[in-house]
From TrEMBL:
This is DUF4440 domain-containing protein. Gene3D superfamilies: 3.10.450.50. It comes from the Bacteria. SUPFAM superfamilies: NTF2-like.
Amino acid sequence: MIASLLIASMPPPAEGAYPYAILDTAKVVIEAVATGDAVTASALMEEDAQLIVVDEREAGQPRVRIRTMTALLDHLEPAPDHHEPLGMPKVLQDGGLAQVWVPYAFYVGGERRHCGTNNLTLVQRGMTWKVATISMTMVPPDRCADIAREER
């Protein structure tokens, strides 16, 4: 909760500056969703935000799911044993629109369950950034090394 208040008070980056406010917002939302913190996540998201999952954990065609973030957040429960280390992010920004592309791995109780890439679209609202869309891929743990996910 405190993290969301700190992020909300951050000014947008100056033209040409590294977009820390964008990246910090994305990281806080990713961690909040991973650990089941719906209050923090919803404070940094657009009301009608979307979640798009391309799940490649089963053989055959990827399973694509599109749903509202409200539907996801309504079912989140605290999960302190969940952890989602992130790789090196790429941030693109054009005025009040930004993209964050970052590889991740997802752990439950210290066991890697899957990995993939998170792609967040953020929009600027006054002095804050809000997540409008989270798109993500999910691949099984045995493919994580194949796609060179760097965790930190």
